[in-house]
Batch of 2 targets.
Target 1
Amino acid sequence: MRVVLKYTREERVKYISHLDLMRAMQRAVRRADIPVAYSQGFNPHPIMAFASPLPVGVTSQAEYMDIVLEQPMSLPVLRERLNHALPKGIGILDAAVVDDKAPSLMSMVERADYRVTVHGFDWQQVLDAYNERTEILVEKRTKRKVTSVNLKDSIYSLQPDKESRDILYLSLSIGKKGSLPPGAVAEALLKLPEQNDKENGSMVFIHRIGLYCRINGQWTTPLSMKRN
Amino acid sequence: MDRLLLDSIMGQVSKPVRYMGNEYNMVEKNPEDVSIRFAFAFPDVYEVGMSHLGMKILYHLINEREDTYCERVFAPWTDMEEKMRQAGVPLFSLETKTPVSQFDLVGFTLQYEMSYTNLLNMLDLAGIPLLAEDRKEGHPFVIVGGPCAYNPEPLADFVDLVALGEGEEIIVELLDQYAEWKGSGESRREFLERAAQIPGIYVPGFYDVSYLEDGRIRSVKPNNPAAEERVAKRIIRNMDEAYFPDRLILPFMDIVHDRIMLELFRGCTRGCRFCQAGMIYRPIRERTPEKLLEMADKLIRSTGYEELSLASLSSSDYSCLEGLVRQLMERYQDKRVALSLPSLRLDSFEKDYIQEMQKVRKTGLTFAPEAGTQRLRDVINKGVTEEDLFKAVTDAFESGWNGVKLYFMIGLPTETQEDLQGIADLAKGVAQCYYNVDPEKRHKGLKITISTSSFVPKPFTPFQWEAQNTMEELKEKQSFLKKALNLKNIYYNWHDPGTSYMEAVFARGDRRLGKVLLSAWKNGAKFDGWTEHFKMNAWMKAFEENNLQPGFYAHRKREKDEIFPWDHIDVGVSKAYLWKEWERALEGKTTPDCRLDCTGCGIRRLGEGLC
């Protein structure tokens, strides 16, 4: 039985890496005594797959992962037991059973939405500069090489908050088409206006609002993959 | 603490998770609700400190008290330190991010001599005066404990109190005294006087040390009526009744020892003559298998750890090992908890256990013959033979292992070229054992790793009178081994002789070294145990600046009647016994395991009725 879990990663645990998160989840699953399937081999570990690793320092209200249960279990019980066993700051919000043969979460998600806050900064100036440009080249680092890509190809939309203009809503492409880390996008955007009133060293807070897949031409959350 | 400022620097350093806290099983209290705040400080980086069992025990033990909140503090890595100093962020606790200077007591555990500069650096980062004499009312008291605290003299200028021996009871008694003192309006000195009356608490400031012209010690005398002539270490009498936490903090990041450590017993009866732990942790006290199974059960449930190791000085000496291992296997195999047996001794290593271990998960195989020939192994009283080693590795190779690590020491007393050649011969012998195994049965890819550390004479061992080899001698021996071990499938690792030299100086150091420590730290020494940070020049300059010779401490052979800087510390094992063992060593005579027959080490004085 394959189950997709939606969970949060809050401020108090935002500096953990993806590997740290995986380890924490594995141990929580063991503490909660969830009958999960284990991998084979010398170092068996609970089988888990994640939609999209969250960068160190970024918080999120909508992360997704899936686990495989060896015995069926009621979803509310699963949620409660896991929440009891998880470190504070990581919480399961929702769970849904999906088809065993459904594609992996990682291959499904194509869009990630973020809220980027820089206290005292006005994002409107970024938006104006952004709209004037047809191409914004940024360096993209992979293990092997550094390439130059057009930032605009990775951005679905960007919009300052109507009331607090130090908040930017940013919608990025992820997955198959390649993706840029939100921190790098924010840094590149902050450099756009000629007159930058961002004080040197002021913090950029990034929060992931959602991850989305496209099913039948509609943007929807990975939980909608659930078995009917 | 300005959280936004802290956040902004954490966003700029490597592995910020080291400074985050908030791990599962971290103790959360409202600081307003307690009257005593205790900072448990480990003078190394998070992933090293969090691997230490003693800290885990004392952290939860102290937090059992309603009146006290114990929080953790580690040495920030150099990138973090730099940012903290730039931004004016003082050293802070992980739990509540409170500046360490605001705590009542700061307790450092001393696991290794080369962490002393980190202790100074942490006090400085905390804004606490480095010298005990400069601390005033309102400053925290600085306490040290742990194995290096048995000779705390090089740190005498910097610490207020030393806790000797096992901490479970003494820390509670100390906190009781502190609670009484705190509301009393008494002076700092009066607290130290109260503390000095607790058995096992040593206040360095209450002793005067005088020196002979040649630099040796003339005498150590108390200068305060509250101080005893000699301070004896503390021992927990009943390990089943001793406090043990039913949960452990689960680090988010990968740490050095990330597993449940089940402490089967304390002490060791083997009597290896180079081994300080084997002497200072006497007498041997075992937990019952029932207690251990109960502990294992609670810890596995509360942590979700996937690995459990048996942690004792010589775990395979545990009297009920077979039954315990079998029970652990049966209970946890389905839960996929791997069992690992570290520091196995050859002579009690049996094929059965290897196979048991393999049932759940394969762990690395390590052996420590320590010396290359039987003659030298007799000198150091490591009662292991070539036959034992070859039998054990043959069994391992037959059971599917293909990698073995062998640990040796170079520079041991009486060592000759023949003993060094012996290391290479043993390595070749082990390789031959592999090739003697039926190729159908053995796994491909033989890898034999030979590691040599350099012998450091330690206080409270029979070798405390011996000189260490000079760096030149050690380097020569290492080059010899590099050539002799340049063989197929054999890999050789060695330790930096400079680090071993400084370790030897501080292990047997006296109070005059406090000035050297301070100078070395000012010259930039920190994280000296980390090869990439060790700065020999900073140390050599520090000795010059203070007109002291490091060779006096490391390379000098002592006479029988010399007064040692640590003679007023009583670990139970007597100096007379150690001298007798030193003489036997030079005669090449072994001393049997004292489980077989009491060898009269003197511990019975402290641990009456325990062995």
Target 2
Amino acid sequence: MSFISYLINGISLGSVYAIIALGYTMVYGIAKMLNFAHGDVIMVGGFTIFFAVSMQGLPPVAGILLAVVLCTLLGITIEYIAYRPLRQAASSLAVLITAIGVSYFLQNMALLIFGANTKAFTSVVTVPAIKLAEGQIMISGETIVTIISCIIIMIGLTLFINKTRAGQAMLAVSEDKGAAQLMGINVNGTISLTFAIGSALAAIAGMLLCSAYPSLTPYTGSMPGIKAFVAAVFGGIGSIPGALIGGIVLGIIEILGKAYISSQMADAIVFLVLIVVLLVKPTGILGKKIQEKV
Amino acid sequence: MKGLKLNKNVKDNLITYGIVIIAYVIMQIMINTGHISSLLQGLLVPLCVYVILAVSLNLTVGILGELSLGHAGFMCVGAFAGAFFSRYMEDVIEVSLLRFVIAIIIGAISAGIVGFLIGMPVLRLRGDYLAIVTLAFGEIIKNIINVLYVGKDSSGIHFSMKDSMSLGLTEDGDVIINGAQGITGTPKDATFTIGIVLIIITLVVVLNLIHSRDGRAIMSIRDNLIAAESIGINITKYKLMAFSISAALAGMAGVLYSHNLSSLMATPKNFGYNMSIMILVFVVLGGIGNIRGSIISAVILTLLPELLRGLSNYRMLIYSVILIVMMLFNWSPKLINLRKKYSLRRLFKKTGEVR
Amino acid sequence: MKKKVVSLLLAASLVTAMLSGCGNSGSSDAGTESAGTEEEADDAQQTQTDASNAEEGSDETPAEGSGETYKIGAIGPATGGAAVYGIAVQNGADLAIKEINEAGGINGSMIEYNFQDDECDNEKSVNAYNTLKDWGMQILVGSTTSGCSIAVSAESANDNLFQLTPSGSSVDCIKNDNVFQVCFTDPNQGVGAAQYIGSNGVAEKVAVIYDSSDVYSSGIYEKFAGEAANQPFEIVSSEAFTADNKTDFSVQLQKAKDAGAELIFLPIYYTEASLILTQANAMGYEPEFFGCDGLDGILNVENFDTALAEGVMLLTPFAADAEDEATKSFVSAYEAAYGDTPNQFAADAYDAVYIIKAAIEQSGAAPTDSASDICDKLKAAMTEISVDGLTGEAMSWEAGGAVNKAPKAMEIVDGNYSLIQ
């Protein structure tokens, strides 16, 4: 019995990783950059909802909308100021470093505005928990909402990329920026759009992360951000279904590792499994094989 | 003219050594005449640590061309190995310099071995996947150190991965590595002079490697792996060579770090991925593959937060802004063009002789 | 090449800035710090520019106190994950110093105050200490966290500078004879908690959830587990979490539940504890919870459903809701000045300043004495004084540095702390 409840806990945790990983993998797939600030955009989303709903008393829907709008604008601004000037830079590492700078900036800005005290986030999810086997096993409302959101977002993103002109433009940009430009695609606009969508997803992830684990500090986003990045790599970074699978697998490994091996070594176990997976399948579970040309 | 050109490398290296030695002499003069603040004096050894880390990571990132996010893990191995030795031998070897030198060697070798063991399986991954695997190893190392308990008593050394009670030490026992509480009371053997000597050693190793036959082989892997393989370069061997040397040097920096502070703990702050990323920031800001740049940017970025102390609570905010601005200034193609247009050298060229 | 020149220029300018900083001699802005964080920042900035007057004081000890003021420095994390504790110490000490200055200072001399950020990093803490030394610090309140305190105590012992750590609870903090503690030591808390649970028969089966990557938490856990062997209860499950893995506690709680624990001992900070309480409630598990002083503050987590904390017991020296006059006036003054409810760290720092005041008055150390002389005098005085503070009545010290005070066992009833007799 306890195994099943561990498994369900793993899926709950994994679904949170998955929803963050979706944003990561989306930006990586198109813009080919690791956006280390993604976790901190999630934190901004969480704080916006906290501010709107818990402090100003707005209805949750308004709070979520506000967070989505604000994070979208934030994402576009960050891209414009910190990433765009370096797109043609000699090394792709340069933009990784500015992303870290942005991450520090957002954390410290939140620290100055909201202070260092922990805030308890009121869950905006009102779906009741499902209880099975006389209450021995419980699936929380947050988990249900998170998993459903993950699936909707995954399908939505896949449809968007494959069926719309803007989505096709994104694919083209991710394949070859130069050629896309020659075909009349607005590369800057497309990448801005990618960041806008990625950041909007971050706002939703922020809402779900903070609903599931209701404590909010300026550093709330950074650690789940890194874990989600690992999950995205697990699933094959750039692959949208991969992010979902990677996230959930990571969550399950983490919980089972804690439960059956050692709670002190949970991180080491997760990372060890990651290494083994990557050594067997160097581009992740659903990653594309890269053909190297001379 | 041709002779001069041939010696360009030598000249370049001499400038690098020169900068280090001049910096050392200036600092020594300042210390001896008392014109130095306690803050700066306290920062001298950390500066050496970060310079060594930056230069050694540059070997992996700049020369080998692989992104590593686990450099702090090697530093951690070196720091704990070295500090353990010093604590263990504190009563046996009385001469602190001798003890410290042995500790450095032990730290460097153990980090090098760990680097070698990790490098063997993972170096066949490429790009971001290698980055994430090195990050993972760094975190694993930190995690293991946090649950490692080692103590000594009259009957020898005891290990445990659970807690210090299960070491079963006798009354006179001494817990040396106490899990998350780390090692306390490491003798403070690190000095600025030793730090500078270690920087010079690092530079000699790295610069000589770069300009040797092996170094050219390593760089050929970076520039084109398939072409390098096709002319018979042993990819695995050279990758491992660069990676382990880089790890060993990081371990050396770790020993220096651990002997500068009386308490050593593996926290996310000093040995986690944050630190690995910070070292990467030094390397990228200074110019990938540019050893001198690494030294300068490590010094600037270590001093910067201290200089910004006057800003009180706005300190880290301003630090992040400066970091972003410096990155844009150093790397943005537009700004680079702009700088070229208005550079001093160009102005000089206009007025005077054209070379 | 151009890049290098620019970098060099940058480096040069930074170094010059640093050196010229040393050249300035300090003009003091003693005791005129006005309220409000904006101005405080400015003040600190000013202090900083005047700071490193180490022109002549470069050697071991800072120069003789410049003028008629005591210079008290404080160190703690003002940024980073542990910022909440450092900022509390910053404000708590600030409040006490303002009060003392308004009331006419110590023996008529004002106090100057300077707080430095250490980001909860041992190395940065030593940097902060050196910065304060350059400023001319005579007495140190700090560091806030155990690891940093240990690192700094090696330096302060070398300089023979009096150090009083408000909240560094490890025994290693007070190894040197110039360092004293305001808070309980970890062993004291761990053993105390085990004895309390045992002698009051609170529970027979106990589970522990602790942070194995944290000095404070693992320190208490060890002593608790050691003492538990002598007590009439049994530890049925002890599970850890780490700094990188502290959002999901379902496994730890499930194990405690499966083992049939009636009580969960939480030697951790309240941020994680609030999550544990929430998650235990969500899974319908209702054991008793028992914590140490790190748990204090849980009722002040903004927006936290305090009903979850109902019945939680903790051994803590301070509670912001206590009814006595001293606590009430401290809490209201703190809230007015900083817009936050003070936690135990703020109270410890507040007490630290008053303890220093008492020790100075006892010993007659003058502001014009050197830091080393002040240290010698205060060391002797510390063992002679007894201070009634927010965090304990009749606190006294052994020469070793540990404090003698009685822990108070509190229980949360109706969203308030109430003393268990």
